[in-house]
Amino acid sequence: MYVVESRGGAIACMLLALFFLGTWPAILTLLERRGRLPQHTYLDYTITNLLAAIIIAFTFGEFGHTNDGKPNFLVQLSQNNWPSVLFAMAGGVVLSLGNLSTQYAWAFVGLSVTEVMTSSITVVIGTTLNYFLDDKINRAEILFPGVACFLIAVCLGSWVHASNAKDNQVKLNKMGDSHMGGKGSLTNGSNAKEGKDLENGTGKVEKAKAGTAGFLIELEGRRAIKVFGKSTFIGLAMCLFAGFCFSLFSPAFNLATNDQWHTLDDGVPHLSVYTAFFYFSCSCFVIAVILNITFLYRPAFNLPQSSIKAYLNDWDGRGWALLAGFLCGFGNGLQFMGGQAAGYAAADAVQALPLVSTFWGVLFFGEYRKSSRRTYILLVGMLSMFIVAVAILMASAGHRKH
């Protein structure tokens, strides 16, 4: 079994996890904006998310020789370690619920604000729990100022959303009622056919420039989740719920691998990161499949009803969804590998993922284009506070004694 033991190796795992975990939400957002049902996308995503955990378990978890103190993955599957297994599976359940909430929150408040708010809440609650679970191996005088910076980022994130929503409303008001289409849909006055993927640049219709009212109307016309006319509090409430769920999965995983509450029988070795991650991902998979199949037939937010057959026949964007699952799965695995070595509180530095998500959001989705000066000032302040918080959090990294 391969074990990350050095602080440098742990930080390398965190940085790679940061890129992976910041990229997969952008891919799912892209598919929703192209009109693919989020239930279809998430079912694809969750398959490869589990597959990533299996690959990690049978590679890193099986490297080298096994012994009684550090058994390999397959050996641990037959051991009496069910209390730790249940902690790992509980972490998978709350992560699945959080991910399910964010896939709808992205449509309401945007990729950047969703990731900032959920990640900041995760750090404020989850990092504090992990600090005490890890027997304070992280430096408190550095760690908690970083947590305070994340809390400030939450407030700035909500202000950015409010300011950007106001900017968008002003743009739409200038367009006038003449651009409202029938049956509640919106058009930009062009001859675009319904369902045309304008974001891909296909078709002969001229695309509206990012940040304009025409762009917002085009986006509303083709996206899967219609958000015009809905309360902005829906998206913020989903962000808060998702953040609370995310704040619990890492402490649950910490308990699964280190048994701080002494639930295992004497002589039973702690779960390795790879075994715990396997059980963690299995429970995440089961919850995701149950909920998304339910949403196929009983969809939320006025989405069209679907079916298993329709999902199986929907190949548009499936490759991207499968890639997103791999990125998330390997990202979570790397985060846990780094956390086991340097402390799970420090590993929460991967919650800097909004820095990556915001980059993708601005580059590909036109977020914050042609917004007001106030919005830009708040956005820069939010991201700056986030960068400072992450740097402080990584500086607090300790070294776990095995």
From TrEMBL:
<feature type="transmembrane region" description="Helical">
    <location>
        <begin position="42"/>
        <end position="61"/>
    </location>
</feature>
<keyword id="KW-0067">ATP-binding</keyword>
<keyword id="KW-0472">Membrane</keyword>
<keyword id="KW-0812">Transmembrane</keyword>
<feature type="transmembrane region" description="Helical">
    <location>
        <begin position="273"/>
        <end position="297"/>
    </location>
</feature>
<feature type="transmembrane region" description="Helical">
    <location>
        <begin position="318"/>
        <end position="338"/>
    </location>
</feature>
<feature type="transmembrane region" description="Helical">
    <location>
        <begin position="344"/>
        <end position="365"/>
    </location>
</feature>
<dbReference type="InterPro" id="IPR009834">
    <property type="entry name" value="Ureide_permease"/>
</dbReference>
<comment type="similarity">
    <text>Belongs to the plant ureide permease (TC 2.A.7.19) family.</text>
</comment>
<dbReference type="Pfam" id="PF07168">
    <property type="entry name" value="Ureide_permease"/>
</dbReference>
<dbReference type="InterPro" id="IPR030189">
    <property type="entry name" value="UPS_plant"/>
</dbReference>
<feature type="transmembrane region" description="Helical">
    <location>
        <begin position="232"/>
        <end position="253"/>
    </location>
</feature>
<keyword id="KW-1133">Transmembrane helix</keyword>
<feature type="region of interest" description="Disordered">
    <location>
        <begin position="176"/>
        <end position="201"/>
    </location>
</feature>
<protein>
    <submittedName>
        <fullName>Ureide permease 1-like protein isoform X1</fullName>
    </submittedName>
</protein>
<feature type="transmembrane region" description="Helical">
    <location>
        <begin position="6"/>
        <end position="30"/>
    </location>
</feature>
<feature type="transmembrane region" description="Helical">
    <location>
        <begin position="142"/>
        <end position="162"/>
    </location>
</feature>
<feature type="transmembrane region" description="Helical">
    <location>
        <begin position="105"/>
        <end position="130"/>
    </location>
</feature>
<keyword id="KW-0547">Nucleotide-binding</keyword>
<feature type="transmembrane region" description="Helical">
    <location>
        <begin position="81"/>
        <end position="98"/>
    </location>
</feature>
<keyword id="KW-0813">Transport</keyword>
<feature type="transmembrane region" description="Helical">
    <location>
        <begin position="377"/>
        <end position="397"/>
    </location>
</feature>
